[in-house]
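Dear support,

I submitted the protein below through the web form. The confirmation email said the job was done, but the results page showed an empty box. After a refresh the structure appeared. I'm attaching both so you can tell me whether what I see now is the final result or a partial one.
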Amino acid sequence: MFAATKLKKLGRLFVIKTRVEVYMVTYALGLGAAERGMHYLDQYPGYGGYLLMLACTGSVFMASAKMLDCVKLEREKAEAEGTVTAPAGTGSAAAGSTATAIPAE
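What the results page shows now:
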């Protein structure tokens, strides 16, 4: 029981919930892709290296767009169900607590 609780808490660290988190992950992926692209330019001079570098950086843009779409979809799904998870730092009693949406009149 204790191990399952710890694993659940550890698993929550790897869930991207906000656009800011997506941007941070994109930045890290972009740094890695640029570094790998520079290695490709050293290994394959000319057009081959440039194409491989373009593939590295292009994949980051595609992954970032997909993550942003998924965060937006999850947010819309939570709003449609009537439960919205409050992001950390919004003044809620507990960060990540579930609040009930108030219907618009």
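Response: this is the final, complete result; the empty box was a page-load delay. The beta strands are 83-85, 98-100.
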